[in-house]
Amino acid sequence: MTAALLETRGISLAFGGVVAAESIDFTLTHGERLAVVGQNGAGKTTFINICTGHLAPSAGTVLFDGHDITNHSSRSITRRGVGRTFQLPQIFSEHTVRECLLLAASSVKRRRGFWVPLEDAVDGQDVDETLDLLQLAGRARDVAGSLPGGQRKLLDVAMALVLRPKLMIMDEPTSGVSSDEKHELMRVLMRALDERGVTTIFVEHDIDIVRRYATRLCAWIAGRIAADGPPEQVLSDPVVVRNVIGE
Ligand SMILES: Nc1ncnc2c1ncn2[C@@H]1O[C@H](COP(=O)(O)OP(=O)(O)OP(=O)(O)O)[C@@H](O)[C@H]1O
Ligand SMILES: [Mg+2]
Question: From the CA of 170, which ligand is nearest?
């Protein structure tokens, strides 16, 4: 039996009259690489926010790795093994790239003495390996805020990956990156996630990227999963073509 890594049962949430999640049943198993597509406002980020503890659903249950994590804090969900990146990279702009990873790694430590230097509190070798994996080793001493767009995205993922997640959820990893750079960015990201054996969900608007990197695709329409399956099958579904791809 393949155990579910992430499962939602009847997840719902409305903002005033806007239904952002409508009774969503969803299962993800180990090793999947799921892309999520949907028009602006379809509810993709809302779903991610509910699964990662950034929003509380009005109904329904979220299970991760066999544990009920509904309404748990984002910090405790991170500790359980869910990594997450945002539409806008959440990096410490005034710190160096390496310090960003040290800070991220230390953030989940239960007890860290106030006066214990970061270097002593976390595994520096692990930090350096993660930087290397995301091709950021050469930028380790640079100030994070000085990085170009693609490398900021890589840094955002590195800060999540250094926590050794079982599942990585990336909200539009290629947004704001030029079309020339997108494929190289995804290649580096996906290779890093593969190497660490991390199951992946990513939200993506670029259908070429979806075709190239996803093993499964979910299309979101108005707070619901309208189609779910192999990418080519979902992309040829008339409802998806009409409402999501817009052809
Ligand atoms: N905190 C909030 N307060 C009020 N309305 C919200 C909030 N978050 C989301 N919404 C609304 O819920 C709906 C779904 O939003 P969501 O951000 O999940 O969409 P999305 O699919 O991620 O869109 P995009 O592709 O633009 O990122 C939208 O109508 C949005 O305006
Ligand atoms: Mg969104």
Answer: 2
Considering the domain boundaries, does residue 206 fall inside one? Answer: no
Range of 33's domain? 1-80+215-247
Q: Are 34 and 214 in contact (CB under 8 A)?
A: yes
In this structure, the answer to whether residues 73 and 124 fall within a common structural domain is no
Number of domains, the chain: 2
136-195 pLDDT, tens digit each: 999 999 999 999 989 999 999 999 999 999 999 999 999 989 888 999 999 999 999 999
pTM here is 0.93
How far, in Å, is the centroid of ligand 2 from the Cα of 64?
22
Give the angle 12-65-3 at the CA atoms, nearest 5°.
Answer: 100
User: Are 94 and 74 in the same domain?
Assistant: no
Which residue has a Cα nearest atom 7 of ligand 1? 15
Within 10 angstroms of residue 226's Cβ, the number of other Cβ atoms is 17
Q: Which residues line ligand 1 (CB under 6 A)?
A: 15, 18, 20, 38, 40-46
